[in-house]
Amino acid sequence: MDIAPNLTPVLGRYFTRNWSHGEGHRLYDTDGRAYLDFANGIAVTALGHGHPTVNAAIHAQVDRLLGPVSAVGFTEPISRLATELAGTFPEPLNSVFFLNSGAEAVEAALKLARRVTGRPGIIAFRGGFHGRTFGAASVTSSSLNYRAGYEPLLPGVHIAPYPVAYPDFGGDEEAASAAALSALRGLFEAVIPPTAVGSMLIEPVLGEGGYTPAPASFLRGLRQMCDEHGILLIADEVQTGIGRTGRMWAFEHAGIVPDVVCVAKAIANGLPLSAIVSSRDLQERWGRSAHGTTYGGNPVACAAGLAVLEVIRDEGLIENAAVRGGELRAGLGRVAAEDDRIGDVRGPGLMVGVEFVRARDGHQPDGDLADRLMADCADAGLLVLLAGREHQVVRWIPPLDVTAAEISEAVEIFGESLAAIPRE
Ligand SMILES: Cc1ncc(COP(=O)(O)O)c(C=O)c1O
Fold first, then answer.
1. Could you tell me if the CB of 106 is within 6 A of ligand 1?
2. Cβ neighbours of residue 226 under 8 Å, at least 6 residues apart?
């Protein structure tokens, strides 16, 4: 039976359960069944469901002022969140433009770069996912379905190889990094001169594309090339940001500072809010009213954002993400040691991917197995999602305040569900 006959069939869903409510790290379906939620609406409810501090901040702000007022003046939650958020970035990233969604943040970053540099070229990386609007879809290449039939997309976009260590280079990060940097130099020599490129846009860890981290040497190489040629480096931290990788921002692992950072998803623990963050100088050069928004920086979403940052700081959740992530990778590594259908376990902090293969030596992706496993895990009370072009990667996105006991519980369900699936 179709549960929602009047809802569009276009929007893809990982599960067809009917959700009733969430409490802490569990989601409950309408039959009252509890599920350990390691999906979090794709990295959104990073503090779980109904976090008391976040909910109290939301309730208080709803009673004080609900409406979006950005174009009319300032409100305390917006101004204060801008300051608090800027405080999580290294200098000179101190100027915040609030929007509503990840795609909007990407659009804004691309527009800023084009206007400020006066250059048409944009370089994005294969496997990247940046959103569904025309500009964001034009820089997205994690699946053909996000692009096909929408051509012509934004002109001036060049897609370069992402440094995928596994399986492309047998897990050798440095080889992957060197090859991808060399491909980029080749692009500059034969396809577009660097003087015509205004921005490079990259996810420090591929999200939808397969939970694949870019090696630090690659991000450092990009930073160097951008500096050399006057190109703005944009980090899409929509999925990787807000502590997910065991650092507040994933670019910190590489010791670089991008020119523009896109932020969304976990920032307001479920309410729509996003932002781009850059230097004040760049935003001034972008120019007054060069971009705008009606809803961006809604005071209720900003109040939630303030509570999220406060909880992350007060409860040491970035450190928790690093420690629990280590436990998660160790647990999954033990499962992988017993089962050669797993080709790779990878990813920083609590952004962990498990890649399934038909045969370890051939590395052929096995999306069917990952798909079945995701369904079986859900039946056993654990929600995990998939990533990768063939959906061959089970991606783990636990809440940032996940406990060691919950990690063990989840790894056990995963291991048992996998063991119960017969080999073909
Ligand atoms: C890295 C990245 N960028 C951009 C987006 C688009 O965000 P939204 O769906 O809020 O537009 C996503 C969404 O999954 C994402 O993972």
1. yes
2. 200, 232, 233, 259
Residue located nearest, by CA, to atom 3 of ligand 1: 130
Residue 71 has pLDDT above 90, yes or no: no
Flag whether pLDDT at 265 surpasses 90: yes
CA–CA gap between residue 393 and residue 143 (Å, rounded): 14
The residue whose CA is least distant from atom 16 of ligand 1 is: 239
CA of 154 to the centre of ligand 1 (A): 18
Tell me, using a 6 A CB cutoff, whether residue 107 lines ligand 1.
no
**Residue 418 and residue 414: Cα distance in Å, rounded?**
6
pLDDT digits (tens, 9 = 90+) for 277-329: 999 999 999 999 999 999 999 999 999 999 999 999 999 999 999 999 999 99
Cβ 387 under 6 angstroms from ligand 1: no
Q: Is 102 in the pocket of ligand 1 (CB under 6 A)?
A: yes
31 CA to centre of ligand 1 in angstroms: 31
pTM over 0.85: yes
